[in-house]
Amino acid sequence: MNKRKNLSHKKSGNKRKRSENSFSKQQKNHGRGGPSKGKRSSDGANQRGQKGITAEVTCTRLTHDGKGIAQWEGKQVEVPHLLPGEKAEILITKRGRDVSGELKRVIASSKDRVEPPCPYFYECGGCQIQHMTNLAQGRFKQQTVNELMKPFVKPEPIMTMEHPYDYRNKSHTAFGMNQQRQIIGGMYAMNTHRIIPMDRCLIHDPKADEIVNTIKGMLKSFKVQPYNEDTGRGLLRHVLIKVGKVSGEIMVVLVTASSEFKGKNNFVKALRNEHPEITTILQNVNKRDTSMVLGEQEKVLFGKGTITDTLGGLEFEISAKSFYQINPVQTEKLYGKAIEMAELSGKETVIDAYCGIGTIGLIASKQAGNVIGVELNKDAVRDSIRNSKRNGVKNARFYQGDAGQFMVEMAARNEKADVVIMDPPRSGSDEAFLSSVVKLKPKKVVYVSCNPETQVRDLHYLEKNGYKVEAIQPVDMFPQTVHVETVAKLVKK
Ligand code: SAH
C-alpha cells in the first residue's frame, strides 16, 4: 500500500476472492499472535474450507514479494509468511498446474521471525513482512535489489528507518456495514473489498486514526450512511487523511458517492470541535464504480483546501489529489541522495520529470542553473507553481503534460538539459520518454523508482543507448511492506 500515483489511491484489486492465508484466523483461534504451534491439523482444509494436501517443507529462500519458497514433489511452492531455514507444515492447494502453499504451523522457527505487532496482519495484506525483524526486512530488501541490479552495479547498503512504524502521512479508510448492520471502517482484506474493521493501523500516523475513529462514531447520530458498493445506496465511501508531519496541519477528505451531503455544516462543526487540530476539510465526490478512491469533483468545506508541510528545508502546499511521498523521514534521505548523485554546480539545466508538487526540483533548484518540471496531474502542477512562489524560487518552471510527450517536444526543438531527474510511477517510464532522454544527451540521469523491476527494464534501455549505471541506492520508504525505493545514477558514456 505504498505509492502511487496521480489519483491512484488505489484499492488492492477487484472483488476477487481472498487468495491467501488463514494462518491469521488459525492464530486467533489459538488465542495468540505468533505462529501456531498447535497440533497437526489432519483435515487438510483451510479456513475457507478449501481442500488441500498437508505437507512438511523447508523454506530455502524468499521471492521478491517476500514469500517463502519451498520444494514439494519436485515443484516450487510459494508460501506467504514462511522464512528461509524454517521447517513448517503447509497446506497445498492446486488450481490447474499452479500449486500454492499456505502456512499452517511453523515447526522450526527462524531467528528472523517476530510476532507481528498488528492483530490484523495476516488478514489485511497492506503489510506483508511484519513477521520479520527490522534487520531481516532490511536484508531481504537489500538482497532483492542486489539480485535485480546484478547486470549493472553493486547497490549501496539500504537506508533503513529508525522507527519503522507510524510513518505514513496519508491514510485512507473504507466505510461499510457489517452483517449486524453496524457501521464499520477499516482496510480491505487482501485482494477483496471486504472491510476489516480496525481502529488502528500501525503504519499510519496515530492522529489520523484518532480522527477516523471520531468520524466513525459520529456517522450514526448525523445519519450519514456508509456507501454500499453492491446496492449503490448510502453516502460515505472513504475518509482520506493527509498529515503534515512537520507542520502538524491536517486535511480530512470525506469521499462521498453523491454530491448531496445533508447536514454537512453541522458534521464539519462537530468534527472540528472534537479535533481542533484539523486545518482543512474537503468533500470529494466519487460516483463511479471504480477502485480509485478519489473522484474528480471536490468541494472545500472548511479551511483552505490544502495543507502545507516542510521537506528538505522548503515549504510545500499539498492538495487532496496531488502525490506527496508518504514517508517524509525517508524521503529526505532519498532526495538527499538523488541530489547528491546529480552533482550540481549551480549552472545546470535540470529536468524534474514526473515531478508531483515539485519537491525534488525545488529542493535541487538552489544548486542548479534552472529547473524544468513536468507532471501529468493538474492539481499537482498548480501546487508546484505555488510552491516555487512560496519558497521564492525564481529559476524553476513547471509544465502540465505527459512526461514522454514533453520530452519528445523538447528533443524536437533541440533544447538542452544537463541533468534529468526522473521519478515515474510504478509502471516505470516509456520509450517516448527514454528515447528523448537519449536525444537530449544530458550528462547525467538520476532515476528514482518505487518499483525496481520496471526500473531495471528502463536502465537496460539507457545502458544500450549510451548511458552507464554508476551507482544504486536503495531506501526503505515502506517498512513492514515488501516495497523498496531505489535511486540510480547514470552517466553519459
Ligand atoms: N517526484 C515526485 C512525484 C513522484 S510520483 C515526488 O517525489 O513527490 C510520480 C508522479 O508521476 C505522480 O505525481 C504522477 O501524477 C506523475 N505521472 C504519472 N504518469 C505521468 C506521465 N505520463 N507524465 C508525467 N507525470 C506522470
What do these coordinates show?
- The protein is of the alpha+beta class and 493 residues long.
- It folds into three domains: 33-129, Nucleic acid-binding proteins (OB fold (Dihydrolipoamide Acetyltransferase, E2P), Beta Barrel), CATH 2.40.50.140; 149-162 and 327-492, 3-Layer(aba) Sandwich (Rossmann fold); 170-310, OB fold (Dihydrolipoamide Acetyltransferase, E2P), CATH 2.40.50.1070.
- The protein is built from eleven helices and 21 strands.
- The strands form four sheets. A seven-stranded mixed β-sheet has the order 8-7-6-9-10-11-12, with helices on one face. A seven-stranded mixed β-sheet has the order 17-16-15-18-19-21-20, with helices on both faces. It has a five-stranded antiparallel β-sheet with strand order 3-2-1-4-5, with no helix packed on it.
- β1 (53-62) and β2 form a beta hairpin.
- The longest helix is centred in the N-terminal third of the chain and has 15 residues, at 134-148.
- The relative contact order is 0.11.
- It binds S-adenosyl-L-homocysteine.
- S-adenosyl-L-homocysteine (SAH) binds next to α7 and β16.
- The site of S-adenosyl-L-homocysteine has 20 residues, from α7 and β16.
- S-adenosyl-L-methionine binds at residues 325, 354, 375, 423.
- This is RNA methyltransferase.
